[in-house]
Amino acid sequence: MNLKELASRLGLSPTTVSRALNGYPEVNEATRERVMAAAKRHNYHPNTRAIRLATGRAMAVGHVIPIATRHEIVNPVFADFIAGAGETYSRNGYDMVLSVVPDDQEEATYRGLKSKGNVDGVIVHAPRMNDPRIALLHDIGLPFVVHGRATGAALPYSWLDVNNRRAFQRATEFLLDLGHSRIGLVNGLEFMDFAIRRRTGYVDALVARGIAPDPGLMASDEMTEIAGHRAARAMLALPQRPSAFLVASMISGMGVRRALEEVGLHMGRDISVIIHDDELSYMKNGEDVPIFTATRSSVRSAGRLTAEMLLDIIAHPGSAPQHRLLEAELIIGQSTGPAPKV
Amino acid sequence: MNLKELASRLGLSPTTVSRALNGYPEVNEATRERVMAAAKRHNYHPNTRAIRLATGRAMAVGHVIPIATRHEIVNPVFADFIAGAGETYSRNGYDMVLSVVPDDQEEATYRGLKSKGNVDGVIVHAPRMNDPRIALLHDIGLPFVVHGRATGAALPYSWLDVNNRRAFQRATEFLLDLGHSRIGLVNGLEFMDFAIRRRTGYVDALVARGIAPDPGLMASDEMTEIAGHRAARAMLALPQRPSAFLVASMISGMGVRRALEEVGLHMGRDISVIIHDDELSYMKNGEDVPIFTATRSSVRSAGRLTAEMLLDIIAHPGSAPQHRLLEAELIIGQSTGPAPKV
DNA sequence: AATCGCAATCAAACCGCTTTGGATGCCGAA
DNA sequence: TTCGGCATCCAAAGCGGTTTGATTGCGATT
Q1: How far is the CA of B55 from the C1' of C23 (A)?
Q2: Nucleic chain D contacts, protein chain A, residues 17-56, CB cut-off 7 A
Q3: I want to staple B201 with a disulfide (CB 3.0 to 4.6 A). Which of A127, B38, B141, B169 is the partner?
Q4: pLDDT (0 to 100) of residue B193
Q5: Which CATH code of 3.30.980.10, 1.20.1050.10, 3.40.50.300, 3.40.50.2300 fits the domain covering B164-298?
Q6: Which nucleotide is nearest to B14 (CA to C1')?
Q7: Which residue of A has its CA nearest to B103?
Q8: Which residue of B has its CA nearest to A288?
Q9: What CATH code would you report for B60-162+301-326?
Q10: A128-172: pLDDT as tens digits
Q11: At what angle do helices B106-115 and B132-140 cross, to 10 degrees?
């Protein structure tokens, strides 16, 4: 069943039927209802491919995921972000198209997406310092929103980010207030923009209290259980071990906890831990009382909001770049307590 | 730059240019090369929307992800499966379109995908017993492959699955051989097909050795850290506690390990644990020596293979359903050892 | 009665490609 | 010489919608 056939059954022209279904004003209400009813009765759905060609819009948004020929891994927050963004797209009749490509083909993929007209815009994931994608997308004229920020970008661009600096600053202050002065930072890889900001927040808080940051207490690695474990073990082996940890993710935090248990330290009593909690749906931080004290920000709702921003930008080309900075909550769980007297 | 313009620059008809670019034989080789060169020089990429309309093919595959209005959560293996499938699609010029929809709109989504012509086929995730999607997709005539199997399906369908029954049977036998006789099963939710099969494997192995399965040693819940912890705690509190655990996932396994440590049991010495390891990229099971003894099967390569199967089915409509059963490896890590003498 | 305005509808062009069904020119065979 | 066959190339008709630019009918205005 297509437009033409539906129109002929109704004794109307395709023009009128199209307009009736799309809510144009110049069609008699009685006619419109007749058309609507017939469309429903015959289970008519306009062919997306034809709409796309006719309107010149792709009605789709792209997400490009470069895969590890070298170091990076599929980001564990990715699934939840996508789920959030996908909700927004579904609600607005957009498709989400994912391109999983070797990272040396990332640029070609963006160019292809634009010139072949597959999508109306893209969301940029996991920005790094001086991220080349921003200039690239500007260059090819493909609307985009960055999830996160890219320090060093020369051009203006739209972004949505969590205030990572502030979150880690507050968490550090919270630990300092509890009497901790040697605080270990188990950070993500510091070519990722958010990891840099987190370290800045941590360092700022220490410096503001007159504490010189100790390089031995700052680790930077992938946010895996293994890496978290390794970093914590190393710091626990120091002559002056930390009495608290600030950890970049739930998963790293589990590695840290394992390290603590191995050396016989009780989390929340002998040693404090704060993690950043992205509220991943499959990685809940406890049920009633959180296991970890955490800076918390839902990556899923970030996905929803980022997608909304992008759709708005697509709908209003030429509008000024948009920015949105979300604050993380600091929620108290069982993993923090006053620094033990020495 | 479009076909018509490229053609006119070349002094050729669109027909010939189209054929030249698509490798049709009825075009002079010299002409073809001239066309190819011009296409490259002008950075010509055919408009995907037009191709799709003209050929009637969507050149896209759909993945429908129902989101939790009730119980389910975004599947943690999902990201890796998608990454694998996406590789296959990219390599073959297909797009992957993800639909994230409230689960009461799942059926409508599949129907829409078909009637609006957005995709040429779909992959069905996380099949349950008597999964209604199979009959639905048969009904609307949308090619599909199931990742997993759906016990109770009346109609034939294509699937790719891991031999979950065998994997858990082997793991159980391995534990039995080590002298364990009380083995706790920390399973996933048993409306999921794979969870049922795993339990079957576990039970079969026990029965084969003349051991009656103890309902108190079989837990079924979401595969989260929290749930794994809860299940393990409950079993450890039994008058006759298990000396080994068989656990459905890496994440559950971390909860189990936490429970063990809380009650002062050393994993691998006092108590044995085997998990199922999907080889998620952000959840490595150790680096050199695996932390957990595990039944292992890469969900990422499953994604690749499932996608290949689907593309094959799309390319050969009317062919017989295809099946592929992958065997899991049993790899030995640090979490298993002989049952302690009582 | 002639004109105007407005509501409602339609024919046809168009989006950018593929594909069908010819054309055209040239060569070798009858 | 004539004609069939072959290699090349092309005009035009789709694909299934949207959108532009009329057209029609009718009550209201002059």
Answers
A1: 25
A2: 18-19, 21-22, 46-47, 49-51, 53-55
A3: B169
A4: 93
A5: 3.40.50.2300
A6: D10
A7: A87
A8: B226
A9: 3.40.50.2300
A10: 889 999 999 999 999 999 999 998 888 999 999 999 999 999 999
A11: 20
Question: By percentage, how much of chain A surpasses pLDDT 70?
Answer: 98
Neighbours of B216 (CB within 10 A): 14
> With the C-alpha atoms ordered A233, A239, A244, A249, is the resulting torsion angle positive or negative?
negative
Q: Which nucleotides of C are covered by protein (CB under 7 A)?
A: 7-12, 14-21
In this prediction, residue B72 carries a pLDDT of 52
Q: At what angle do helices B164-177 and B193-208 cross, to 10 degrees?
A: 30
Which residues of A fall within a CB distance of 8 Å from B90?
A: 99-101, 109
pLDDT digits (tens, 9 = 90+) for B306-334: 999 999 999 999 899 999 999 999 999 99
Which CATH class name applies to A164-297?
Answer: alpha beta
CATH topology agreement for domains A60-162+301-326 and A164-297: yes
Q: In terms of CATH architecture, what is B3-46?
A: Orthogonal Bundle (1.10)
Half-sphere exposure of A44 (CA within 13 A, CB side): 21
Kindly report the CA angle at A143 between A141 and A148, in degrees rounded to 5?
120
Rounded average pLDDT over A80-98: 95
